[in-house]
Amino acid sequence: MTRPNSAPVTRRRVLRGLLGGGAALGALGGVGAAQAYAFGVTRERATLPGLRTPVRVAFLTDLHYGLYVGPGSVRAWVDAANAERPDLVLLGGDFIDIPSGDSPAGLFPELARLRAPLGVYGVWGNHDYDSFGRRDSRRGGRARPDWEARRDSLTAEFARAGVTLLLNTGRALRDDLWLGGVDDFWQGRPDLAAALAGAGDRATLLLSHNPDVLPDLPAPVGLTLCGHTHGGQIRLPLVGAVHVPSRYGQRYAMGWVRGAHGTPAYVSRGLGTSGVPLRNLCEPEVTLLTLTGEAEATLDK
């Protein structure tokens, strides 16, 4: 898999885009800050071929716990997810956005409150890797020699909080449902085939932080869930997103899209913010997906 270069979201990049937009200056004030913290629950339905019994999936991504997000925000998101009584909770990466070496200790008690009979699973994102020290701002962008050990340590801490991180691997959640999760597209080593190996004839869900994996899917997938883009985070009427951190521009910015082999994918707008603590016309979301097999979908019509 080739990993195309795409400039990350930075304060300078976002602000330059806003200033170039003229009318977008209003997003720099209190309105943009207020929109950054007012989230909603998006409810979607989809058919998942091979699924024999419906499954309700709560999808939370891009928490960015750190400078702009504290335990109170995470608590509200967890409460909203639990209120939907999901069968499965999936977390799409960029959990933490902190200097490498710092601890996200306040995050774990909140994530530990998530409840779902099929479990809570997640994948790493690019900001998680920055927080491991894979690209350390305190070292001029160079990697900390212990970044892999820090990743392993945090993987264990997430596990103690009830969150299983999938790193190019998958799990049979039921005899009719397979979940695969891939490493981060920008800073990890994603292996899509490894994440899907073992699925057999089960319905398949694939979890990837970054939607730029979608053109490289080695085979059809029932449904892929992604985050990373924040929906552009700051959107303007008639223009769309000021900046989308993707090689494909607005193509995978948010919502329902298609990957290789016609694979349907949902790209969440996420919950936290990156670069600047602002959003405009791009509400943060907890997503609740009700997935049914083809037989149930036919009955619903």
Helical content class = 10-25%
Total strands: the figure is 16
Shape: globular
CATH T-level fold name: Purple Acid Phosphatase, chain A, domain 2
Mean pLDDT across the residues is 90
- Structural domain tally: 1
Helix run count: 8
Q: H/E order of the elements?
A: HHEEEHEEHEHHEEEHEEEEEEEH
Q: Output the CATH class name.
A: Alpha Beta
- Spatial arrangement of strands, main beta sheet: 1-16-2-4-6-7
Q: Give the name of the CATH architecture.
A: 4-Layer Sandwich
Whole-angstrom Rg: 18 Å
Low-confidence stretches: 17-29
Gap from first CA to last CA = 39 Å
Largest sheet: 6 strands, mixed
Domain Calcineurin-like phosphoesterase: 56-231
Pfam families: Metallophos
Protein name: Metallophosphoesterase
Keywords: Hydrolase, Metal-binding
What's the SSE blueprint?
Layout: H1 11-20, H2 30-37, E1 40-47, E2 55-60, E3 65-66, H3 71-83, E4 88-91, E5 96-97, H4 107-111, E6 120-122, H5 126-132, H6 147-160, E7 163-165, E8 169-174, E9 177-181, H7 192-196, E10 203-207, E11 223-226, E12 235-236, E13 240-241, E14 255-258, E15 264-267, E16 285-292, H8 294-300
Parallel strand pairs: 1-16, 2-4, 3-5, 4-6, 6-7, 9-10, 10-11, 11-15
Antiparallel strand pairs: 2-16, 8-9, 12-13, 14-15
